[in-house]
Amino acid sequence: MAVVDRNDASVPDIDEAMKLGAGHPMGPLTLADYVGLDTCYNILKGWTEAHPNNTDFFMPKVLIDLH
């Protein structure tokens, strides 16, 4: 989602790249939608609150907008 936030690639391009390049059965953004964006949001919210100094955990703008 950070890649989408930076406008480096589109959602379909990211998903297709991960399917073709990494052999994933579905792209990570399709998977996030399948799991539920609200679920992803709440999990990431918990991680960012539990680890406020860890820059690996941040809330992507696209997830906030879609939540």
Can you walk me through this structure?
By secondary structure, this protein is mainly α. The protein contains 5 helices and no strands. The longest helix has 14 residues, at 37-50. The mean pLDDT is 96.
Rg measurement, Å = 13 Å
The chain-level structural class is: mainly alpha
What share of residues are in beta strands? under 5%
- Count up the helices: 5
What is the straight-line distance between the termini?
13 Å
Q: Which term fits the overall shape?
A: globular
The biggest sheet amounts to: none
The total strand number stands at 0
**Roughly what percent helix?**
55-70%
Low-confidence stretches: none
pLDDT averaged residue by residue: 96
Element pattern in H and E = HHHHH
In short:
The protein contains five helices and no strands. It is an all-alpha fold.
Annotation keywords:
mainly alpha; 67 residues; 0% strand; globular; 66% helix
Q: What is this structure's SSE topology?
A:
Layout: H1 2-5, H2 11-22, H3 28-35, H4 37-50, H5 61-66
